[in-house]
Every structure is written in C-alpha cells, then in structure tokens.
C-alpha cells in the first residue's frame, strides 16, 4: 500500500467514525505512533481521536496502560495477552469507544526463532452492551523495518473499520 492509499484509508475511517459518533484511542509499540499520526493527519480528526500512547518499553506499557508485570514476564511484549491488555488499558484510561493496540518486532534486530522479525500482534477493544469486547490477530509481515511498520498501520486501521461495521 502506498502513502496515498494509507491516507485515503485514514480519511475513510475518520469519516465513518464521525458518522457513527464514535471515538478512538491508540496504544502503539513497534509503530511508534504511526497509527495516531495517520489518523491525526486527517483534518477534523479531533472529533474522533482524543489520545494515543506510544509505549515502546515494557515499563511504559505497565505505567501508561496498566499492563500487568506478570503478563510481560510470562509472555513477552510481543504476545496476545499483552497486546489485549494494551488495548483494554487505552480504552479504559481514555474513555474512547474503540482502542487499538499494536506490538511487534519490526527489525532488523530483535527477532527470535519463536518470534521472528515481522511478527506483530494486534488487539481491538470496544465498548459493547455495558462491557468491553477485545479481539486480537497475529500477522507475520515480510520486508524490512519500514515495510513491517507500514503494513502494521494498515492492518490496525482496517481492523478498526471491520469492527466499526459490525
């Protein structure tokens, strides 16, 4: 996907959130705030986007999002339990209708046999019937650091749209 495609995806998402009167908050690790930047590049996005957290370190995940130390110790930052806790944490702390979280290994270093470069976990938390529903997804993206990060941004945005529509 090109930068223009990503920009168009963000425009569509902001329009759809606006039409539905919904708000969004982000919790990002490997994308370093790129999801939030993409959304806030859209004029008028302040009506649907209130905040984003870049929690690159485990300490930041604990302090800013309330991710339990035990989850990080047992599963590592790039894991389903941690990314779900990130999404729930940003949803709870922001008061938004949707929370999206991204945690992965963009490279070129940091990969392992079990979690190679390109491994990315996503979670989407949303308020539903007085509670919170959290969905997650794992992707292994090809390419270098920027490729992994770009594809992660696209997947996060597309995931919000899917959940926005039902």
Labels describing this entry:
166 residues; alpha/beta; 5-stranded mixed sheet; Maf protein
Topology of helices and strands:
Layout: H1 3-20, E1 24-28, H2 34-40, E2 49-54, H3 58-65, H4 69-75, H5 80-94, E3 98-104, E4 119-128, E5 131-140, H6 145-164
Parallel strand pairs: 1-2, 1-3
Antiparallel strand pairs: 3-4, 4-5
Helix pairs in contact: 1-6
How would you portray this structure in words?
The chain has 166 residues and is of the alpha/beta class. It has a single domain (3-164), classed as Alpha-Beta Complex (Maf protein), CATH 3.90.950. Helix content is 45%, strand content 23%. The chain contains 6 helices and 5 strands; from the N terminus they run αβαβαααβββα. A hairpin with a 2-residue loop joins strand 4 and strand 5. The two termini are 24 Å apart.
- Which radius of gyration do the C-alpha atoms yield? 15 Å
Q: Mean pLDDT, nearest integer?
A: 97
Helix percentage range = 40-55%
As for the number of domains, it is 1
General form: globular
Strand line-up across the major sheet? 2-1-3-4-5
Fill in the CATH topology.
Answer: Maf protein
């Amino acid at each position: 996907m090109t930068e223009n495609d990503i920009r168009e995806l963000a425009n569509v998402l902001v329009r759809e959130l606006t039409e539905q009167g919904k708000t969004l908050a982000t919790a990002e690790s490997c994308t370093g705030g790129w999801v939030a930047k993409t959304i806030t590049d859209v004029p008028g996005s302040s009506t649907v986007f209130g905040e984003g957290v870049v929690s690159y370190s485990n300490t930041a995940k604990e302090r800013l999002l309330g991710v339990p130390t035990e989850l990080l110790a047992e599963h590592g930052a790039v894991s389903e339990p941690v990314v779900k806790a990130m999404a729930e944490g940003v949803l709870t702390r922001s008061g938004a209708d949707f929370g999206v979280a991204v945690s992965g290994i963009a490279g070129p270093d940091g990969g392992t046999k079990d979690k190679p470069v390109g491994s990315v976990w996503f979670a989407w938390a949303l308020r539903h019937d007085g509670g919170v529903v959290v969905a997650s997804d794992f992707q292994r993206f090809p390419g270098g650091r920027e490729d992994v990060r770009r594809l992660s941004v696209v997947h996060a945005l597309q995931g919000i749209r899917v959940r926005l529509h039902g």
